[in-house]
Amino acid sequence: MLTYAQKQEAVAQLKGKFEKASTIILADPCGLDVTSVNTLRSQIRTTGEGEYEYQVVKNSVLKRAAAGNAAEVLADHFTGPTAVAISYGDPVGLAKVLVKYAEAHEAFEIKAGLLDGREVDTGEIGTLATLPGLDELRGKIVGLIQAPAQKIAAVLVAPATQLARVMDARRAQLEESGGAQPS
Description:
Elements: H1 4-20, E1 23-28, H2 34-48, E2 52-56, H3 59-66, E3 83-87, H4 91-104, E4 109-115, E5 118-120, H5 122-130, H6 134-177
Antiparallel strand pairs: 1-3, 1-4, 2-3, 4-5
C-alpha cells in the first residue's frame, strides 16, 4: 500500500507527463494476463523509442493528475481498470500499436484519448492508426524534394549523353564499313 507521500509523488509525476504529452490514450486492460501486458509494453517501448509510455494507474491518481490540465476532459473515462498510454511525439505510432493490439486481444479495449488538447473517441483513434507515421511522412517529403532535382539533372545530362551515343554509333558504323576514321 502506498503512503500519502508516495501517492502525492505519483500524482505529481503523472501530472507532469500529462502536461508534456502530445497524445494520451486510455484503455481497459481487464482480462489480460501478465505475459500479454508485458508484450504490449515491449511493443510500445520498441516502437516509440522512448517517446511512448504505458502504465496501469488507479483512477483516483488519474483524477488528481488530470485536474487543472488538458487531460481533465478525460475524467469521465476514469472508471474501471484504466491503462494510460502516453506519446510525447508522433501520435500515429502509438495509436497503431494500441489498435493492432486491441484487434488481436478482445479483452483489451480502447476507451478514449486526447490528441493535442482535444478529446478523441475510439473511431478517431482508429483513423489515426491508419495514417502514415512521422518518419514515413518525412521520407515522402524528402522524396518529393529530391525528385525535381533529379529530373533537372537528367535534362541537363541528356544532350551530352545523346551526343556521345551519336558519336559512338558513327564510330561503330565506320568500323563496320572499314572506312577511315575522320580526323
